[in-house]
Known about the structure:
4-stranded antiparallel sheet
Amino acid sequence: MVEQEENLDEMISKGLHAAVKHRWWLLLPTVLGGLLACAVSRVLPNRYESEATILVEHQQVPTQYVTPNTTADMRETLLITTDAILSRTQLLKIIDEFNLYPSERKRFSPEELAALMRSKIGIKSLNEVGGANSLDAFKISYIGSSPHLAQEVTRKLTTLFVQETDRSRGDQDRITTQFLQQQVDAAAAELKKQEDQVAEFKLKNLGDLPEQQAGNLGILSGYQMQLQNAQAALGRAKEQQVYTQSLLAQYQQMSATEVAIPGAGGSATADPVQTIKAKLADLRSQRATLLADHTEKYPDVVRIEEEIKESEALLATAEKKTSQPATDAGGKESTDASDSSTNSAAMAQLKSQLQANQIEIQNDQALEKQLQGQIAEYRNRLNLTPVREQQLAELNRNYELTKKNYDDLLDRKQKSELATDLDQQQQGQRFRTIDQPSLPMKPAWPNHMAIALGGLGAGLGLGIALVFILYYLDHSVIDEKELGRFFSFPLLIGVPSLPTRAEVRRRSRTHVVEWVLGTALFLVVCASEYYVYRRG
Protein backbone atom coordinates (compact mmCIF):
# COMPACT_ATOMS: atom_id res chain seq x y z
CA MET A 1 0.00 0.00 0.00
CA VAL A 2 2.81 2.37 0.91
CA GLU A 3 4.59 1.44 -2.29
CA GLN A 4 1.47 2.26 -4.35
CA GLU A 5 1.19 5.67 -2.71
CA GLU A 6 4.86 6.34 -3.42
CA ASN A 7 4.39 5.37 -7.03
CA LEU A 8 1.37 7.65 -7.29
CA ASP A 9 3.28 10.58 -5.78
CA GLU A 10 6.15 9.89 -8.15
CA MET A 11 3.84 9.90 -11.17
CA ILE A 12 2.23 13.18 -10.08
CA SER A 13 5.61 14.72 -9.53
CA LYS A 14 6.86 13.66 -12.94
CA GLY A 15 3.64 14.91 -14.53
CA LEU A 16 3.98 18.31 -12.95
CA HIS A 17 7.66 18.42 -13.91
CA ALA A 18 6.75 17.58 -17.50
CA ALA A 19 3.95 20.18 -17.52
CA VAL A 20 6.25 22.87 -16.21
CA LYS A 21 9.06 21.89 -18.54
CA HIS A 22 6.77 21.80 -21.63
CA ARG A 23 4.39 24.50 -20.44
CA TRP A 24 4.18 26.25 -23.76
CA TRP A 25 3.18 23.02 -25.48
CA LEU A 26 0.33 22.88 -23.01
CA LEU A 27 -0.62 26.54 -23.04
CA LEU A 28 -0.48 27.36 -26.75
CA PRO A 29 -2.84 24.56 -28.01
CA THR A 30 -5.30 25.41 -25.24
CA VAL A 31 -5.31 29.10 -26.13
CA LEU A 32 -5.42 28.47 -29.84
CA GLY A 33 -8.22 25.93 -29.45
CA GLY A 34 -10.31 28.33 -27.39
CA LEU A 35 -9.76 31.27 -29.76
CA LEU A 36 -10.43 29.16 -32.81
CA ALA A 37 -13.63 27.79 -31.30
CA CYS A 38 -14.82 31.32 -30.47
CA ALA A 39 -14.12 32.44 -34.01
CA VAL A 40 -15.90 29.43 -35.47
CA SER A 41 -18.93 29.94 -33.24
CA ARG A 42 -19.27 33.49 -34.54
CA VAL A 43 -18.89 32.43 -38.15
CA LEU A 44 -21.63 29.79 -38.01
CA PRO A 45 -25.05 31.18 -39.03
CA ASN A 46 -27.73 31.40 -36.38
CA ARG A 47 -30.77 29.13 -36.52
CA TYR A 48 -33.99 30.02 -34.66
CA GLU A 49 -36.57 27.53 -33.46
CA SER A 50 -40.26 28.38 -33.19
CA GLU A 51 -42.66 26.09 -31.33
CA ALA A 52 -46.44 25.67 -31.23
CA THR A 53 -48.54 23.45 -28.96
CA ILE A 54 -51.57 21.55 -30.28
CA LEU A 55 -54.16 20.08 -27.93
CA VAL A 56 -55.99 16.88 -28.78
CA GLU A 57 -59.66 17.56 -28.04
CA HIS A 58 -61.63 14.40 -27.38
CA GLN A 59 -65.25 13.95 -28.38
CA GLN A 60 -67.44 16.14 -26.19
CA VAL A 61 -70.52 13.88 -26.46
CA PRO A 62 -70.10 10.48 -24.73
CA THR A 63 -69.34 7.64 -27.12
CA GLN A 64 -72.23 5.55 -25.80
CA TYR A 65 -74.56 8.14 -27.34
CA VAL A 66 -72.63 8.94 -30.53
CA THR A 67 -70.18 6.38 -31.90
CA PRO A 68 -67.43 7.99 -34.03
CA ASN A 69 -66.84 6.75 -37.56
CA THR A 70 -63.14 6.19 -36.94
CA THR A 71 -61.67 3.77 -34.41
CA ALA A 72 -58.10 5.03 -34.77
CA ASP A 73 -56.62 6.74 -31.70
CA MET A 74 -55.11 10.19 -31.96
CA ARG A 75 -51.55 8.92 -31.90
CA GLU A 76 -52.24 6.90 -35.03
CA THR A 77 -54.05 9.89 -36.51
CA LEU A 78 -51.01 12.05 -35.73
CA LEU A 79 -48.70 9.61 -37.51
CA ILE A 80 -50.93 9.53 -40.57
CA THR A 81 -51.22 13.33 -40.61
CA THR A 82 -47.45 13.70 -40.13
CA ASP A 83 -46.81 11.50 -43.14
CA ALA A 84 -49.19 13.64 -45.20
CA ILE A 85 -47.73 16.98 -44.04
CA LEU A 86 -44.08 15.88 -44.35
CA SER A 87 -44.52 14.41 -47.79
CA ARG A 88 -42.19 15.63 -50.50
CA THR A 89 -44.96 17.39 -52.43
CA GLN A 90 -46.26 19.30 -49.41
CA LEU A 91 -42.78 20.31 -48.20
CA LEU A 92 -41.79 21.58 -51.64
CA LYS A 93 -44.93 23.73 -51.69
CA ILE A 94 -43.94 25.26 -48.34
CA ILE A 95 -40.35 25.82 -49.58
CA ASP A 96 -41.66 27.65 -52.65
CA GLU A 97 -44.17 29.65 -50.61
CA PHE A 98 -41.61 31.00 -48.13
CA ASN A 99 -38.60 30.91 -50.46
CA LEU A 100 -36.65 28.70 -48.11
CA TYR A 101 -33.05 27.54 -48.67
CA PRO A 102 -32.27 29.84 -51.64
CA SER A 103 -28.64 28.74 -51.90
CA GLU A 104 -29.38 25.06 -51.42
CA ARG A 105 -32.06 25.12 -54.11
CA LYS A 106 -29.36 25.74 -56.68
CA ARG A 107 -27.41 22.64 -55.66
CA PHE A 108 -29.92 20.19 -54.17
CA SER A 109 -32.50 18.02 -55.87
CA PRO A 110 -36.17 18.27 -54.78
CA GLU A 111 -35.81 15.09 -52.71
CA GLU A 112 -32.76 16.51 -50.94
CA LEU A 113 -34.54 19.80 -50.27
CA ALA A 114 -37.51 17.93 -48.79
CA ALA A 115 -35.17 15.83 -46.65
CA LEU A 116 -33.35 18.99 -45.48
CA MET A 117 -36.57 20.69 -44.42
CA ARG A 118 -37.85 17.48 -42.84
CA SER A 119 -34.75 17.42 -40.64
CA LYS A 120 -35.61 20.94 -39.39
CA ILE A 121 -39.13 19.99 -38.31
CA GLY A 122 -39.74 18.48 -34.90
CA ILE A 123 -42.89 16.80 -33.53
CA LYS A 124 -42.94 15.86 -29.85
CA SER A 125 -45.85 14.38 -27.91
CA LEU A 126 -46.75 15.81 -24.49
CA ASN A 127 -48.97 14.84 -21.57
CA GLU A 128 -49.54 11.26 -22.57
CA VAL A 129 -52.50 9.66 -20.87
CA GLY A 130 -54.14 6.26 -21.06
CA GLY A 131 -51.11 4.26 -22.14
CA ALA A 132 -48.62 4.25 -24.94
CA ASN A 133 -51.23 4.63 -27.68
CA SER A 134 -52.95 7.71 -26.23
CA LEU A 135 -52.11 11.33 -26.88
CA ASP A 136 -53.20 14.47 -25.08
CA ALA A 137 -51.05 17.19 -26.69
CA PHE A 138 -47.98 17.58 -28.87
CA LYS A 139 -45.58 20.28 -30.05
CA ILE A 140 -44.56 21.26 -33.56
CA SER A 141 -41.28 23.12 -34.08
CA TYR A 142 -39.29 24.42 -37.02
CA ILE A 143 -35.72 25.72 -37.17
CA GLY A 144 -35.28 28.63 -39.58
CA SER A 145 -32.68 31.22 -40.51
CA SER A 146 -34.61 34.09 -38.91
CA PRO A 147 -37.09 34.38 -36.03
CA HIS A 148 -39.99 35.62 -38.14
CA LEU A 149 -39.42 33.03 -40.84
CA ALA A 150 -39.32 30.24 -38.27
CA GLN A 151 -42.56 31.55 -36.75
CA GLU A 152 -44.36 31.80 -40.09
CA VAL A 153 -43.32 28.32 -41.22
CA THR A 154 -44.36 26.87 -37.85
CA ARG A 155 -47.72 28.62 -38.14
CA LYS A 156 -48.15 27.15 -41.61
CA LEU A 157 -47.31 23.65 -40.36
CA THR A 158 -49.70 24.04 -37.43
CA THR A 159 -52.52 25.15 -39.72
CA LEU A 160 -51.84 22.26 -42.06
CA PHE A 161 -51.97 19.78 -39.19
CA VAL A 162 -55.34 21.06 -37.99
CA GLN A 163 -56.80 21.35 -41.49
CA GLU A 164 -55.50 17.96 -42.61
CA THR A 165 -56.98 16.27 -39.54
CA ASP A 166 -60.37 17.94 -40.06
CA ARG A 167 -60.31 17.12 -43.77
CA SER A 168 -59.31 13.51 -43.12
CA ARG A 169 -62.09 13.00 -40.58
CA GLY A 170 -64.57 14.74 -42.88
CA ASP A 171 -63.59 12.50 -45.80
CA GLN A 172 -63.84 9.45 -43.61
CA ASP A 173 -67.28 10.52 -42.38
CA ARG A 174 -68.44 11.14 -45.95
CA ILE A 175 -67.02 7.89 -47.31
CA THR A 176 -68.44 5.89 -44.41
CA THR A 177 -71.89 7.43 -44.79
CA GLN A 178 -71.90 6.93 -48.57
CA PHE A 179 -70.80 3.32 -48.21
CA LEU A 180 -73.49 2.61 -45.63
CA GLN A 181 -76.09 4.36 -47.81
CA GLN A 182 -75.16 2.08 -50.72
CA GLN A 183 -75.41 -0.95 -48.47
CA VAL A 184 -78.77 0.23 -47.14
CA ASP A 185 -80.08 0.74 -50.69
CA ALA A 186 -78.90 -2.73 -51.70
CA ALA A 187 -80.42 -4.25 -48.57
CA ALA A 188 -83.70 -2.37 -49.21
CA ALA A 189 -83.83 -3.71 -52.76
CA GLU A 190 -83.17 -7.24 -51.50
CA LEU A 191 -85.82 -6.78 -48.79
CA LYS A 192 -88.33 -5.59 -51.41
CA LYS A 193 -87.48 -8.65 -53.51
CA GLN A 194 -88.07 -10.93 -50.53
CA GLU A 195 -91.35 -9.17 -49.76
CA ASP A 196 -92.48 -9.61 -53.38
CA GLN A 197 -91.58 -13.30 -53.25
CA VAL A 198 -93.58 -13.80 -50.05
CA ALA A 199 -96.55 -11.85 -51.46
CA GLU A 200 -96.39 -13.76 -54.76
CA PHE A 201 -96.22 -17.08 -52.91
CA LYS A 202 -99.22 -16.19 -50.75
CA LEU A 203 -101.21 -14.99 -53.76
CA LYS A 204 -100.31 -18.09 -55.78
CA ASN A 205 -101.16 -20.48 -52.94
CA LEU A 206 -104.17 -18.63 -51.59
CA GLY A 207 -106.28 -21.10 -49.63
CA ASP A 208 -103.38 -23.48 -48.86
CA LEU A 209 -101.54 -21.15 -46.44
CA PRO A 210 -100.93 -22.18 -42.82
CA GLU A 211 -102.80 -19.19 -41.41
CA GLN A 212 -105.89 -20.31 -43.41
CA GLN A 213 -105.89 -23.83 -41.95
CA ALA A 214 -108.40 -23.01 -39.22
CA GLY A 215 -110.66 -21.29 -41.74
CA ASN A 216 -110.39 -24.21 -44.13
CA LEU A 217 -111.29 -26.62 -41.35
CA GLY A 218 -114.34 -24.52 -40.51
CA ILE A 219 -115.42 -24.31 -44.14
CA LEU A 220 -114.85 -28.05 -44.61
CA SER A 221 -116.95 -28.77 -41.54
CA GLY A 222 -119.69 -26.50 -42.90
CA TYR A 223 -119.60 -28.20 -46.31
CA GLN A 224 -119.73 -31.61 -44.66
CA MET A 225 -122.78 -30.51 -42.68
CA GLN A 226 -124.38 -29.13 -45.86
CA LEU A 227 -123.60 -32.42 -47.59
CA GLN A 228 -125.31 -34.33 -44.80
CA ASN A 229 -128.33 -32.04 -45.08
CA ALA A 230 -128.35 -32.37 -48.87
CA GLN A 231 -128.13 -36.15 -48.65
CA ALA A 232 -130.94 -36.17 -46.09
CA ALA A 233 -133.05 -33.92 -48.33
CA LEU A 234 -132.29 -36.17 -51.30
CA GLY A 235 -133.40 -39.19 -49.29
CA ARG A 236 -136.62 -37.49 -48.30
CA ALA A 237 -137.24 -36.39 -51.88
CA LYS A 238 -136.81 -39.97 -53.07
CA GLU A 239 -139.17 -41.19 -50.35
CA GLN A 240 -141.68 -38.55 -51.43
CA GLN A 241 -141.25 -39.69 -55.00
CA VAL A 242 -142.01 -43.30 -54.04
CA TYR A 243 -145.00 -42.19 -52.01
CA THR A 244 -146.38 -40.00 -54.77
CA GLN A 245 -145.84 -42.72 -57.34
CA SER A 246 -147.72 -45.14 -55.05
CA LEU A 247 -150.66 -42.75 -54.73
CA LEU A 248 -150.70 -42.16 -58.45
CA ALA A 249 -150.74 -45.87 -59.08
CA GLN A 250 -153.64 -46.31 -56.66
CA TYR A 251 -155.64 -43.58 -58.36
CA GLN A 252 -154.87 -45.01 -61.75
CA GLN A 253 -156.06 -48.43 -60.50
CA MET A 254 -159.22 -46.86 -59.07
CA SER A 255 -159.99 -45.29 -62.42
CA ALA A 256 -159.32 -48.47 -64.41
CA THR A 257 -161.04 -51.09 -62.20
CA GLU A 258 -163.95 -50.54 -59.84
CA VAL A 259 -165.18 -53.36 -57.56
CA ALA A 260 -168.76 -53.14 -56.33
CA ILE A 261 -169.16 -53.53 -52.60
CA PRO A 262 -172.58 -55.00 -51.68
CA GLY A 263 -174.65 -52.86 -49.35
CA ALA A 264 -172.26 -49.99 -49.80
CA GLY A 265 -174.30 -48.14 -52.36
CA GLY A 266 -171.39 -47.67 -54.71
CA SER A 267 -168.07 -49.05 -55.93
CA ALA A 268 -164.85 -49.56 -53.80
CA THR A 269 -161.13 -49.92 -54.54
CA ALA A 270 -157.94 -50.14 -52.46
CA ASP A 271 -158.46 -47.14 -50.16
CA PRO A 272 -155.63 -44.51 -50.39
CA VAL A 273 -156.88 -42.52 -47.38
CA GLN A 274 -154.93 -44.54 -44.88
CA THR A 275 -151.78 -44.24 -47.00
CA ILE A 276 -152.13 -40.47 -47.18
CA LYS A 277 -152.79 -40.25 -43.44
CA ALA A 278 -149.70 -42.33 -42.71
CA LYS A 279 -147.59 -40.13 -44.98
CA LEU A 280 -149.08 -37.00 -43.44
CA ALA A 281 -148.27 -38.27 -39.96
CA ASP A 282 -144.68 -38.98 -41.06
CA LEU A 283 -144.31 -35.48 -42.54
CA ARG A 284 -145.60 -33.89 -39.36
CA SER A 285 -143.18 -35.94 -37.33
CA GLN A 286 -140.29 -34.79 -39.57
CA ARG A 287 -141.41 -31.17 -39.20
CA ALA A 288 -141.51 -31.48 -35.42
CA THR A 289 -138.01 -32.97 -35.47
CA LEU A 290 -136.63 -30.16 -37.67
CA LEU A 291 -138.32 -27.40 -35.62
CA ALA A 292 -136.53 -28.70 -32.55
CA ASP A 293 -133.19 -27.58 -34.11
CA HIS A 294 -134.20 -25.00 -36.76
CA THR A 295 -136.62 -22.15 -37.33
CA GLU A 296 -139.70 -22.18 -39.52
CA LYS A 297 -137.73 -20.45 -42.31
CA TYR A 298 -135.25 -23.32 -42.60
CA PRO A 299 -135.43 -24.68 -46.20
CA ASP A 300 -136.28 -28.26 -45.18
CA VAL A 301 -139.00 -27.01 -42.82
CA VAL A 302 -140.50 -24.87 -45.60
CA ARG A 303 -140.40 -27.82 -48.03
CA ILE A 304 -142.06 -30.19 -45.57
CA GLU A 305 -144.75 -27.57 -44.89
CA GLU A 306 -145.53 -27.53 -48.63
CA GLU A 307 -145.63 -31.32 -48.72
CA ILE A 308 -147.97 -31.34 -45.71
CA LYS A 309 -150.30 -28.89 -47.46
CA GLU A 310 -150.31 -31.01 -50.60
CA SER A 311 -150.94 -34.20 -48.59
CA GLU A 312 -153.76 -32.52 -46.67
CA ALA A 313 -155.35 -31.47 -49.97
CA LEU A 314 -155.01 -35.02 -51.30
CA LEU A 315 -156.45 -36.40 -48.06
CA ALA A 316 -159.44 -34.07 -48.26
CA THR A 317 -160.10 -35.17 -51.83
CA ALA A 318 -159.78 -38.84 -50.93
CA GLU A 319 -162.04 -38.52 -47.88
CA LYS A 320 -164.65 -36.67 -49.93
CA LYS A 321 -164.67 -39.43 -52.47
CA THR A 322 -164.98 -42.26 -49.95
CA SER A 323 -167.64 -40.52 -47.85
CA GLN A 324 -170.09 -39.83 -50.77
CA PRO A 325 -173.49 -41.72 -50.11
CA ALA A 326 -174.97 -44.33 -52.49
CA THR A 327 -177.68 -43.18 -54.96
CA ASP A 328 -180.22 -44.77 -57.10
CA ALA A 329 -179.66 -46.02 -60.55
CA GLY A 330 -180.53 -42.73 -62.03
CA GLY A 331 -178.12 -41.03 -59.83
CA LYS A 332 -175.39 -43.70 -60.13
CA GLU A 333 -174.28 -42.52 -63.52
CA SER A 334 -173.95 -38.99 -62.23
CA THR A 335 -171.86 -40.19 -59.26
CA ASP A 336 -169.52 -42.18 -61.43
CA ALA A 337 -168.97 -39.19 -63.62
CA SER A 338 -168.17 -37.07 -60.57
CA ASP A 339 -165.77 -39.72 -59.22
CA SER A 340 -164.04 -39.95 -62.57
CA SER A 341 -163.58 -36.19 -62.64
CA THR A 342 -162.23 -36.20 -59.08
CA ASN A 343 -159.79 -39.00 -59.84
CA SER A 344 -158.55 -37.16 -62.91
CA ALA A 345 -157.90 -33.99 -60.91
CA ALA A 346 -156.06 -35.94 -58.18
CA MET A 347 -153.93 -37.80 -60.72
CA ALA A 348 -153.05 -34.51 -62.44
CA GLN A 349 -152.02 -33.03 -59.12
CA LEU A 350 -149.93 -36.11 -58.29
CA LYS A 351 -148.25 -36.01 -61.68
CA SER A 352 -147.43 -32.32 -61.18
CA GLN A 353 -146.07 -33.18 -57.75
CA LEU A 354 -143.97 -35.97 -59.27
CA GLN A 355 -142.46 -33.54 -61.78
CA ALA A 356 -141.62 -31.07 -59.01
CA ASN A 357 -140.24 -33.93 -56.93
CA GLN A 358 -138.06 -35.06 -59.85
CA ILE A 359 -136.68 -31.54 -60.25
CA GLU A 360 -135.99 -31.42 -56.50
CA ILE A 361 -134.15 -34.76 -56.69
CA GLN A 362 -132.02 -33.47 -59.58
CA ASN A 363 -131.22 -30.27 -57.69
CA ASP A 364 -130.31 -32.23 -54.56
CA GLN A 365 -128.10 -34.57 -56.56
CA ALA A 366 -126.37 -31.59 -58.25
CA LEU A 367 -125.90 -29.92 -54.85
CA GLU A 368 -124.53 -33.17 -53.42
CA LYS A 369 -122.02 -33.45 -56.26
CA GLN A 370 -121.03 -29.82 -55.90
CA LEU A 371 -120.55 -30.17 -52.14
CA GLN A 372 -118.51 -33.34 -52.60
CA GLY A 373 -116.25 -31.50 -55.05
CA GLN A 374 -115.81 -28.60 -52.65
CA ILE A 375 -115.11 -30.98 -49.79
CA ALA A 376 -112.48 -32.74 -51.90
CA GLU A 377 -110.93 -29.36 -52.76
CA TYR A 378 -110.69 -28.26 -49.12
CA ARG A 379 -109.34 -31.62 -48.07
CA ASN A 380 -106.66 -31.21 -50.72
CA ARG A 381 -105.92 -27.73 -49.36
CA LEU A 382 -105.55 -29.12 -45.86
CA ASN A 383 -103.24 -31.84 -47.17
CA LEU A 384 -101.09 -29.21 -48.89
CA THR A 385 -100.94 -26.96 -45.81
CA PRO A 386 -97.83 -28.66 -44.25
CA VAL A 387 -95.96 -28.35 -47.56
CA ARG A 388 -96.93 -24.70 -47.93
CA GLU A 389 -96.00 -24.10 -44.29
CA GLN A 390 -92.48 -25.44 -44.90
CA GLN A 391 -92.09 -23.40 -48.11
CA LEU A 392 -93.43 -20.26 -46.44
CA ALA A 393 -91.17 -20.81 -43.42
CA GLU A 394 -88.12 -20.84 -45.70
CA LEU A 395 -89.29 -17.66 -47.44
CA ASN A 396 -90.01 -15.98 -44.10
CA ARG A 397 -86.62 -17.04 -42.74
CA ASN A 398 -84.84 -15.45 -45.70
CA TYR A 399 -87.05 -12.39 -45.32
CA GLU A 400 -86.29 -12.06 -41.59
CA LEU A 401 -82.54 -12.38 -42.20
CA THR A 402 -82.70 -9.77 -44.94
CA LYS A 403 -84.81 -7.48 -42.75
CA LYS A 404 -82.42 -7.88 -39.83
CA ASN A 405 -79.49 -7.00 -42.10
CA TYR A 406 -81.41 -3.99 -43.44
CA ASP A 407 -82.30 -2.76 -39.94
CA ASP A 408 -78.69 -3.17 -38.79
CA LEU A 409 -77.32 -1.26 -41.79
CA LEU A 410 -79.95 1.46 -41.39
CA ASP A 411 -79.01 1.85 -37.72
CA ARG A 412 -75.32 2.09 -38.62
CA LYS A 413 -76.03 4.68 -41.32
CA GLN A 414 -78.01 6.80 -38.88
CA LYS A 415 -75.17 6.58 -36.34
CA SER A 416 -72.67 7.55 -39.05
CA GLU A 417 -74.80 10.56 -40.03
CA LEU A 418 -74.99 11.55 -36.37
CA ALA A 419 -71.20 11.29 -36.00
CA THR A 420 -70.75 13.29 -39.22
CA ASP A 421 -73.03 16.03 -37.91
CA LEU A 422 -71.10 16.05 -34.64
CA ASP A 423 -67.78 16.51 -36.48
CA GLN A 424 -69.25 19.26 -38.64
CA GLN A 425 -70.24 21.10 -35.46
CA GLN A 426 -66.61 20.67 -34.27
CA GLN A 427 -67.68 18.70 -31.22
CA GLY A 428 -65.89 15.51 -32.20
CA GLN A 429 -62.30 14.48 -31.68
CA ARG A 430 -59.96 16.99 -33.32
CA PHE A 431 -56.73 19.05 -33.03
CA ARG A 432 -56.81 22.60 -31.63
CA THR A 433 -53.92 25.03 -31.33
CA ILE A 434 -53.60 26.23 -27.74
CA ASP A 435 -50.14 27.80 -27.95
CA GLN A 436 -49.50 29.84 -31.08
CA PRO A 437 -46.08 29.65 -32.76
CA SER A 438 -43.52 31.52 -30.70
CA LEU A 439 -41.19 34.26 -31.93
CA PRO A 440 -37.71 33.09 -30.81
CA MET A 441 -35.44 35.77 -29.36
CA LYS A 442 -32.29 33.65 -29.12
CA PRO A 443 -30.92 31.24 -31.69
CA ALA A 444 -31.47 27.59 -31.01
CA TRP A 445 -28.33 26.71 -32.93
CA PRO A 446 -25.36 26.98 -32.75
CA ASN A 447 -24.69 26.95 -29.01
CA HIS A 448 -21.82 29.45 -29.05
CA MET A 449 -20.84 28.90 -25.44
CA ALA A 450 -20.73 25.15 -25.85
CA ILE A 451 -18.62 25.48 -28.98
CA ALA A 452 -16.21 27.90 -27.27
CA LEU A 453 -15.84 25.75 -24.19
CA GLY A 454 -15.54 22.70 -26.36
CA GLY A 455 -12.73 24.27 -28.36
CA LEU A 456 -11.00 25.28 -25.14
CA GLY A 457 -11.31 21.76 -23.80
CA ALA A 458 -10.12 20.27 -27.07
CA GLY A 459 -7.06 22.56 -27.06
CA LEU A 460 -6.30 21.58 -23.48
CA GLY A 461 -6.60 17.93 -24.35
CA LEU A 462 -4.28 18.40 -27.31
CA GLY A 463 -1.74 20.21 -25.10
CA ILE A 464 -1.79 17.41 -22.52
CA ALA A 465 -1.31 14.87 -25.27
CA LEU A 466 1.68 16.80 -26.64
CA VAL A 467 3.20 17.05 -23.14
CA PHE A 468 2.93 13.28 -22.66
CA ILE A 469 4.45 12.65 -26.09
CA LEU A 470 7.36 14.98 -25.35
CA TYR A 471 7.80 13.42 -21.92
CA TYR A 472 8.14 9.94 -23.35
CA LEU A 473 10.49 11.18 -26.07
CA ASP A 474 12.69 12.98 -23.52
CA HIS A 475 15.47 10.64 -22.25
CA SER A 476 17.15 13.12 -19.90
CA VAL A 477 17.72 12.15 -16.25
CA ILE A 478 15.64 14.11 -13.77
CA ASP A 479 16.76 12.78 -10.38
CA GLU A 480 18.97 10.13 -8.73
CA LYS A 481 16.26 7.48 -9.00
CA GLU A 482 16.27 7.67 -12.77
CA LEU A 483 20.06 7.64 -12.69
CA GLY A 484 19.95 4.39 -10.75
CA ARG A 485 18.05 2.82 -13.61
CA PHE A 486 20.96 3.36 -15.96
CA PHE A 487 23.85 2.54 -13.59
CA SER A 488 24.19 -0.33 -11.16
CA PHE A 489 26.69 1.38 -8.82
CA PRO A 490 25.40 3.73 -6.19
CA LEU A 491 25.52 7.53 -6.51
CA LEU A 492 28.54 8.83 -4.51
CA ILE A 493 28.29 12.59 -5.09
CA GLY A 494 26.00 15.09 -6.81
CA VAL A 495 27.06 18.37 -8.41
CA PRO A 496 24.36 21.10 -8.18
CA SER A 497 23.64 23.62 -10.95
CA LEU A 498 25.98 26.63 -10.67
CA PRO A 499 24.59 29.32 -13.07
CA THR A 500 26.47 32.55 -13.65
CA ARG A 501 25.00 35.96 -12.85
CA ALA A 502 24.20 36.54 -16.52
CA GLU A 503 22.35 33.24 -16.70
CA VAL A 504 20.42 34.10 -13.58
CA ARG A 505 19.40 37.51 -14.98
CA ARG A 506 18.42 35.89 -18.33
CA ARG A 507 16.35 33.26 -16.61
CA SER A 508 14.62 35.92 -14.57
CA ARG A 509 13.78 38.01 -17.60
CA THR A 510 12.54 34.86 -19.39
CA HIS A 511 10.27 33.98 -16.46
CA VAL A 512 8.82 37.45 -16.42
CA VAL A 513 8.17 37.44 -20.14
CA GLU A 514 6.59 34.03 -19.89
CA TRP A 515 4.33 35.11 -17.03
CA VAL A 516 3.31 38.27 -18.83
CA LEU A 517 2.69 36.43 -22.06
CA GLY A 518 0.83 33.62 -20.32
CA THR A 519 -1.30 36.03 -18.38
CA ALA A 520 -2.09 37.98 -21.55
CA LEU A 521 -3.11 34.79 -23.37
CA PHE A 522 -5.23 33.75 -20.42
CA LEU A 523 -6.99 37.12 -20.37
CA VAL A 524 -7.56 36.97 -24.12
CA VAL A 525 -9.14 33.56 -23.80
CA CYS A 526 -11.30 34.70 -20.90
CA ALA A 527 -12.38 37.80 -22.80
CA SER A 528 -13.27 35.69 -25.85
CA GLU A 529 -15.30 33.27 -23.79
CA TYR A 530 -17.12 36.10 -22.04
CA TYR A 531 -17.87 37.75 -25.37
CA VAL A 532 -19.29 34.52 -26.70
CA TYR A 533 -21.35 34.10 -23.56
CA ARG A 534 -22.80 37.60 -23.81
CA ARG A 535 -23.59 37.35 -27.53
CA GLY A 536 -24.82 33.79 -27.33
